[in-house]
Amino acid sequence: MAKIQMKTPLVEMDGDEMTRIIWQDIKDILLTPYIDLKTEYYDLGLVHRNETDDQVTVDSANATKKYGVAVKCATITPNAARMPEYNLKEMWKSPNGTIRAILDGTVFRTPILVKGITPYIPTWTKPITIARHAYGDVYKNVEMKCPAGSKAELVCTDKDGKETRETIYNFECDGIIQGQHNKSTSIASFARACFNFALDKKQDVWFATKDTISKKYDHTFKDIFQEIYDNEYKAKFEAAGIEYFYTLIDDAVARVIRSNGGYIWACKNYDGDVMSDMVATAYGSLAMMTSVLVSPDGIYEYEAAHGTVQRHYYKHLKGEETSTNSVATLFAWTGALRKRGELDNLPELMNFADCLEKATIETIEDGVMTGDLYLLSTLENKKKVNTVDFLKAVDERLKMLLG
Ligand code: NAD
Description:
Layout: E1 10-14, H1 17-31, E2 39-43, H2 46-51, H3 55-67, E3 69-72, H4 82-85, H5 95-103, E4 106-111, E5 129-133, E6 142-146, E7 151-157, E8 163-170, E9 175-179, H6 184-201, E10 205-209, H7 217-240, E11 244-248, H8 249-258, E12 264-267, H9 269-283, E13 289-294, E14 300-304, H10 310-317, H11 327-343, H12 347-365, E15 368-369, H13 371-374, E16 383-384, H14 387-401
Parallel strand pairs: 1-2, 1-3, 3-14, 5-12, 10-11, 10-12, 15-16
Antiparallel strand pairs: 4-5, 4-13, 6-9, 7-8, 13-14
Helix pairs in contact: 1-10, 1-14, 3-5, 6-7, 11-12, 12-14
Bound molecules: nicotinamide-adenine-dinucleotide (NAD).
Cofactor: Mg(2+); Mn(2+)
EC number: 1.1.1.42
GO molecular function: isocitrate dehydrogenase (NADP+) activity; magnesium ion binding; NAD binding
């Protein structure tokens, strides 16, 4: 069989630990035998980030801007323990944070549902996609400790030097303060990314903030969403038979729990951080979740939602067998290949991505799965396999689907 040809390279961002091992296995077993894989390779493994003073992360994000589609492996965000382990020059920042800051954009995370794994909330029969605003708020905060007796103020100096001043608090004891910001342009592109994604998926958008308490900050999010919806999307949503729904965040969580799923839940940065882990856990596993960062100018970065699975990596290094779930990493590749196929008009590549996803789901539904899913699955004929044997089982089904 002739290999599928690509036109434009994918930006490939390699990563760390067990996911780096899986990355190579996926390429060897499921991609390069079928595709003449074109990538521009960036090694975001911690060793190379340290060697390049983290320049490689910036370069990979800029390459993503140039080519439009990237696929990223999970990477270590260094903490104190990693300093001696990797002999680091500095405690480098989270690569995801760096990439998100350069691309701006919104992260969409959707659970991958399979038969045999019932969500902890059994009424969630359809996936809930979390759309996380990937800019600002507490992630770009400035904070201080304030000793007793200090007066904390919020000051904004406009371009003509005029100051607006508000007292935050007069501290009678030691305390803390935090300054956060967001930008109207970023909130607007967050709104547009959610509305476009909704039209693409034919699903409703829910959005929630705490605008009753935060009458300027959160209220601005609410107002920008409403204005963009009314002016640019209302007619398109009505034609597609979908809705935009705004409510308070506390009301939203109550409704989410009672819902059947099947919508996009737009979340501010922090809400999205927390809710995506809750939703992933409730649907079964972080390893059964797709994740894509969509920038306002239509740039896509696909990744797995989980980390580098450190514990399995240490087992792997000792020569012990691992049973690590590769589904999220695999779906990062299929998402990126399908998008490349769409942009370059390569139906064969898109079909390959569809078949590979189908083969993966069928493998699990046939009872062949890694240890994490084995613990959750209610299938009677289930069988636990190791990391590589799972990929080989997917390959058997892929061969059948590709004919
Ligand atoms: P983790 O996601 O690697 O692991 C959390 C737990 O989930 C562990 O018990 C792990 O065994 C299990 N798990 C996660 N993915 C799994 C999979 N595919 N198959 C089977 N089990 C799986 O997160 P962590 O342990 O908090 O972090 C490990 C490293 O990953 C850290 O250095 C952290 O900085 C990094 N990290 C990276 C990303 C990213 O690049 N997107 C995200 C989170 C954490």
